[in-house]
Each structure stands twice: as C-alpha cells, then as structure tokens.
Known about the structure:
Elements: H1 2-24, E1 41-43, E2 50-52, E3 57-59, E4 62-64, H2 67-76
Amino acid sequence: MKFILVVLAVVVLLWMLRGSVRRMRPPAPPRAGDAAPPQAMLSCAHCGVHLPGNEALPGRGGVFCDEAHRAAFERAHPSA
C-alpha cells in the first residue's frame, strides 16, 4: 500500500511540473499561412458604409458597396 501511495505521489508531482513548464514556455508564433492579410477598409461613396477593399465595387465617383448604390450615385452625379 505504501508503494502505491509513493508512485501516485510521484505521478502527481510530475504532472504538476509538466504544467508549470508549459506555462513558462512562450507561445508559439503564428504560422505564415494561417491568417488572411488585413484588408483596407473603404467607405461607400453613396451611403458611407465601410467595407473591405476586396469587396468594394469601383465606379466613377469612388467605390461602392453594391451595384445599386453605384448606379444611383452615377445617376445623381452624371459628370463625376
């Protein structure tokens, strides 16, 4: 019985030491392919809503959030 308690105490001690070593180790740096690069946020020239640059639609007066806003802006500003 005494042997089992000693083995159990050693196992618990090793388990606690392993946890403290993990906490002391700095976190791993993020891998290069994990996250998408940040996108520039652009404002719709018609309504002002902000959207990522890769989703913006270019037009004569700037960038737009959708085709309807681009058409409405171009109708309202024919010379722009």
